[in-house]
Design a protein that fits this description.
Length: 136
């Protein structure tokens, strides 16, 4: 029993130094329609690559012209996954919408997956990934 165990602390130095997740993405259908209300599904597969159980969350942010809801108001979405054990895999499917103001082109979508310390208020480590969604 170490001195940190008396205060309820745990050693997280090995989680903070390594890449905590393997993040894979896919979009179905591959493209969206411009100047129309259209939807595609973003599938995010997250695998815990650390040696211990970690508290996890995902934040998705879409670029200009896209939204996380059909009304076009919400540009970001946070999904609290909970605890992921060693080598556990979690799949999130998020709808992404275009609207009548969406112009043709390639629009970026940023995906941030975070490791939290104790509660969702404290971020210990994370992985960032950016993909592009084609709008034609």
């Amino acid at each position: 029993m170490g001195i940190l165990d008396l205060f309820g602390k745990k050693d997280v130095s090995n989680v903070a130094k390594k890449v905590p997740y393997d993040v894979k993405t896919s979009v179905n259908p591959i493209r969206l329609s411009a100047h129309k209300i259209d939807r595609c599904d973003l599938e995010i597969k997250i695998k815990n690559m650390t040696e211990e159980t970690v508290l996890s969350s995902v934040v998705i942010e879409v670029g200009n012209g896209l939204a996380m809801d059909q009304t076009g108001i919400h540009k970001t979405k946070e999904i609290r996954i909970g605890y992921l054990n060693k080598n556990d895999e979690y799949t999130v499917i998020v709808p992404i919408w275009s609207n009548v103001m969406t112009n043709p082109g390639s629009i970026p979508v940023k995906i941030n997956v975070y490791v939290h310390y104790r509660t969702y208020s404290y971020i210990l480590n994370g992985v960032k990934k950016e993909i592009n969604i084609r709008v034609v």
